[in-house]
Amino acid sequence: MTGATAAAASRPAADDATPLLRVEDVSVRFGGVVALDGLSFDVPRGSICGLIGPNGAGKTTMFNVVSRVYEASSGRVLLDGQDLLRLPAHRIASVGVARTFQNIALFPTMTVLDNITVGAHSRGSGGWVSAALRLGTRRNDAAARADAMALLDRLGLASLALRPVAGLPFGTMKRIELARAMAARPKLLLLDEPANGLTHSEVDELGSVIRTLRDDFALSVLLVEHHMKMVMGISDRVTVLDFGRRIADGTPAQVQRDPAVIAAYLGGDVHRDGDGSDRG
């Protein structure tokens, strides 16, 4: 059993009624601009939850609050009952939160394997940059690299382990970033527009990968994504934001029928299959 598998086996069962993540009345203000306005929602254990909304709705702002990039003006964000807003940013990985980014944030001159190993070391107290600087200096480096290789194999990337990241196809780099986030052994995985820039076939494959990782590692996943077909296809629940407020929350079928959601998208088709930009 790998370290990642052992960590998954020790977590609470997915049918635990207590949500893994509870967002309570979170507001964020930038000067006179209200980015989030009393937002509340839950992410149940073992679930994939989509967070959607029109451009500027506050989705990425919410991600940045959870990962401690932004400070909330008020409210609480509870992970297993612990308020993440009381923790410094460098502690977030160590309590079980990992994320990917809209723009790929890999170390281009490092090998694929070393990039993933950085994710494993980020479980310590210093974050990704410190982990990269410490690479190869820890006694458990061999174990971290073994876990990294197992993740690369699972994602079909093992043959690229010793290749530098620079010059690899965009879709491949997206998978590498996902593997790096998984190397941190998270309880909660935040995926910020993981399908952005992918082809339709790559999007379909990504959806299957996310569900498999959720099942195999007992993850909870919070997904911000503008590709509605993927969101509605893999999410157990969907929360819809507009102007920083929650306007709908439910199963994908419930959300797609909600008049407030249809109005927020200006009458657009929330079943749409195409791509689009999302700065929220």
TrEMBL record:
Asked whether the keyword Nucleotide-binding is assigned, the reply is yes
- Gene3D superfamilies from the xrefs? P-loop containing nucleotide triphosphate hydrolases
One term under GO cellular component: plasma membrane
Q: Which UniProt keywords apply?
A: ATP-binding, Nucleotide-binding, Transport
GO MF: ATP binding; ATP hydrolysis activity
Q: Name one Pfam family in it.
A: BCA_ABC_TP_C
Claim: Transmembrane is one of the keywords in the record: no
Read off the SMART domains from this record. AAA
Q: Which domain of life is it from?
A: Bacteria
The ABC transporter domain covers which part of the protein? 21-268
The name of this protein is ABC transporter ATP-binding protein
Q: Which organism is it from?
A: Geodermatophilus sabuli
